[in-house]
Every structure is written in C-alpha cells, then in structure tokens.
Amino acid sequence: MPNNHHPTDPESLRRARRLRREATRPEQLLWAALRNGRLAGAKFRRQVVLGEYILDFYSAEHGLVVEIDGESHEDRGAYDSRRDEWLRARGLRVVRYTNDDVLAELDGVLEGIRRLLISSSHRAE
C-alpha cells in the first residue's frame, strides 16, 4: 500500500493536529493503552490522515484502523459506510467501538483489538 499518511492538503493536517490536541476522554483512554506498542507490541498512530479521511487509530503494520464513534457519528451512518468501504478497498480492516464501549468495557475493547492484531500477524506468516 502506498504511503498515503502524509497529507497533501494542509487543512487536513491542521485538522488532525487539532483532533489530537482535543481528544475525547474515550480517545485518551484508548491511546494510553495503545501507544508505544503497549498492546501486543503493535505500533499505532492517532488521528492519521489517509486519503481524504482522518483515522482515529491506525496500525500500518497490521493494516488495522480503530474508530471510536461518539455522538458525532449518530447521523453519519452512510458516510461511515462509504469511508469504511474505501479503507477496506485498500486492504485495511476497520473496527468500530462507541465511546460507551471504551468507557464501560475498556478491557473488552482492548481484547478485541488484541485478537485482531494476532490474527493479522498469523496472516502475514
């Protein structure tokens, strides 16, 4: 897959930086658990620009996108579907959790992500 995480659109880069600075509580909690290879040794980046989209969390090595959906996603089902389809067409797996999932069941969310990371490692062998 080409190196698309370097945006050509300066506005997308500014928006991604703002999203990193203004992370929601669920995003902060998940980032604390994912950063620096803390989950299964996988490297994740947050608020990564890919094409015209900004991904909440992205592991390029594992081809995994983790999205945390808050209230802003309630009326965005069609948009999210198109976005997920675009990402899957590029060989990426997309998993979505709600803010409530992260706040109430962080361990379960992390276990789900860990399983996806392990399954991607087995495919690469």
List the helices and strands and how they pair.
Blueprint: H1 10-21, H2 25-34, E1 45-50, E2 53-59, E3 64-69, H3 77-89, E4 93-98, H4 99-104, H5 106-124
Parallel strand pairs: 3-4
Antiparallel strand pairs: 1-2, 2-3
What does this molecule look like?
The chain has a single domain (10-124), classed as Endonuclease, Chain A. The protein is 48% helix and 20% strand. It has helices at residues 10-21, 25-34, 77-89, 99-104, 106-124, and strands spanning 45-50, 53-59, 64-69, 93-98. Strand 2 and strand 3 (64-69) form a beta hairpin. The model is unreliable at 1-7 (pLDDT under 50).
Pick out its properties.
Endonuclease, Chain A, 125 residues, 48% helix
Encode the helix/strand succession as letters: HHEEEHEHH
* CATH topology term: Endonuclease, Chain A
What is the molecular shape?
globular
Residues in helices, as a percent range: 40-55%
Terminal CA distance reads: 18 Å
Number of domains: 1
**CATH class, please?**
Alpha Beta
Q: How many H/I helical runs?
A: 5
CATH architecture: 3-Layer(aba) Sandwich
Q: Roughly what is the average pLDDT, rounded to an integer?
A: 88
Largest sheet: 4 strands, mixed
User: Uncertain spans, ≥5 residues at pLDDT below 50?
Assistant: 1-7
Summarize the structure.
With 125 residues, this protein is of the alpha+beta class. It has helices at residues 10-21, 25-34, 77-89, 99-104, 106-124; strands at residues 45-50, 53-59, 64-69, 93-98. It has a four-stranded mixed β-sheet, with helices on both faces.
